[in-house]
Each structure stands twice: as C-alpha cells, then as structure tokens.
C-alpha cells in the first residue's frame, strides 16, 4: 500500500524553477526531468524507508540522470517532500526547513 506523496511549497518551487531551467534549453530534457522526479515520488510513496536517513528524520532519494535529490520525511499517513534539490547547492537551505 502506497502512501500519498505531498510536495511542500518550497519543494514545489524548487521543482518548478528547475523544470523551467531545463525547458528553456530543451522541452524534451524538461520532460525527462519531470518524469525522473515523478518516478522518485512513486518510489518513495511505495517504499518510504528504502532510502537512508541523512538529517534528523529526512531521507534522500537520487533523481536518476540528473544532479538532483529528493529529500523527504515519512509521516504517519503520507510522505512529505521537503526539497527537490540540486546536488551542488548548500544543504543548509533545505535543512532549515526541518
């Protein structure tokens, strides 16, 4: 049984900004990015404990083919996405949300 995946406002804004960046360069690459992130959401909803804890109760799932990770926390009845984060950025940005 999968848990619903809820994307926090900051995480949605990060995704949107990243999607727009790819879209400005290639609509096909933007579509691939969106599909890769959706695949992570599906995976973490189905198996939220499959990825290791990296900070407090936050886990990290790698977005295949892109330099991004999805940071999320399992809650009783949902998976909360805290960040869709480029790996070259300072993690203090998303850590401040937890």
Structural write-up:
The protein has 98 residues and is an alpha+beta fold. It has a single domain, classed as YaeB-like fold (2-Layer Sandwich). Helix content is 42%, strand content 30%. The chain is built from three helices and five strands. Helix 1 (9-25) runs antiparallel to helix 2. The radius of gyration is 13 Å and the shape is globular. The N and C termini lie far apart (26 Å).
- Largest beta sheet: strand ordering: 1-5-4-3-2
Beta strands, count: 5
Note the run of SSEs as H and E: EHHEEEEH
Strand content: 25-35%
Shape: globular
Task: Jot down its keywords.
alpha+beta, YaeB-like fold, about 40% helix, about 100 residues, globular, single chain, 5-stranded mixed sheet, 3 helices
Provide a brief overview of the structure.
With 98 residues, the protein is an alpha+beta fold.
Helix and strand topology:
Blueprint: E1 5-7, H1 9-25, H2 27-46, E2 53-55, E3 58-63, E4 68-75, E5 78-86, H3 92-95
Parallel strand pairs: 1-5
Antiparallel strand pairs: 2-3, 3-4, 4-5
Helix pairs in contact: 1-2
């Amino acid at each position: 049984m999968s848990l619903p995946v809820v994307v926090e406002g900051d995480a949605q804004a990060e995704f949107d900004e990243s999607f727009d960046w790819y879209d400005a360069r290639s609509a096909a690459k933007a579509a691939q990015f969106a599909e890769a992130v959706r695949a992570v959401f599906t995976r973490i909803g189905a198996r939220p404990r499959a990825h290791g804890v990296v900070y407090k109760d936050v886990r990290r799932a790698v977005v295949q083919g892109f330099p991004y990770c999805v940071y999320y926390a399992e809650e009783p009845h949902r998976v909360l996405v805290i960040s869709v984060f480029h790996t070259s950025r300072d993690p203090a940005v998303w850590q401040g949300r937890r």
